[in-house]
Amino acid sequence: MRILFAFGSALFAGLTSILAKCGIQKTDFTMATAIRTIVVLLFSWLMVFLADSQLQTASIDSKTLIFLLLSGLATGASWLCYFRALQIGDVNKVVPINKSSTILTIILAFVFLQESITVYSGIGVILIGVGTFMMVEKKDIQKPVKEGKSWLFYAIGSAVFASLTSILGKIGISGIESNLGTAIRTGVVLIVSWVMVFVTGKQKEFKRIPGKEFGFICLSGLATGGSWLCYYKALQDGLASVVTSIDKMSILVTIVFSRLVFHEKLSKKSIFGLADIVAGTAVMLIPSLFR
Q: Which residues cross the membrane (predicted)?
């Protein structure tokens, strides 16, 4: 069952990007992020109570709280960049770059957390890096830059901030239960996203959100929550390395649905790039299979 829950996590994670893209055709990405975060926050606290870790709230020390707050700020920045990239770019281009945060996370973990880089993780990093590079076409960079709407910059920003989220979050949850740490971090994201809404004067956009897009935004939040619940259940019963690797396969779900829903096509070069990313993720899974 743990494998099924892991694949369920990947399925919902893949659907999140598609639903989010459907919800920001006319809706401002800042407002969409703020609305979606409300739904995600509800799910994160649901997970806290399912894990019965709410009683640890009073015992959180200042260091843990600071790093959780910083992790929340990084998450908020990553989500804002990601939504903006999805709004102006193709899903099958944005998602691979966002998933490349794995590379930077491994490097930062080596530098700041002294985590070793194995042969398998090294090969995986190279394959994912090459695959991501192959999926970005030259025209995808030149045309948006000339138009002043480069989704690439936002996609890279989402990956960088996602990596910082992982490192800061790793330090932040060292002293508390992980689900409680996630809930606190998501609360910070909620505050950041709504502050951004009011700072940019987008609060007036709420009344103008098409009903259909509002539904997709909420469904995107529900998909994220569903992914987290499946991920949590899989982690309870299985190895973290196995579950995490399967969860990363959500990129395949996203690519398939982007073809079906938005009719986005991959070039031969991009297909080889996607194969490299999947292969790199699979290589990282190898050590856990022999434990």
A: 30-52, 64-86, 106-130, 151-171, 183-201, 213-234, 271-290
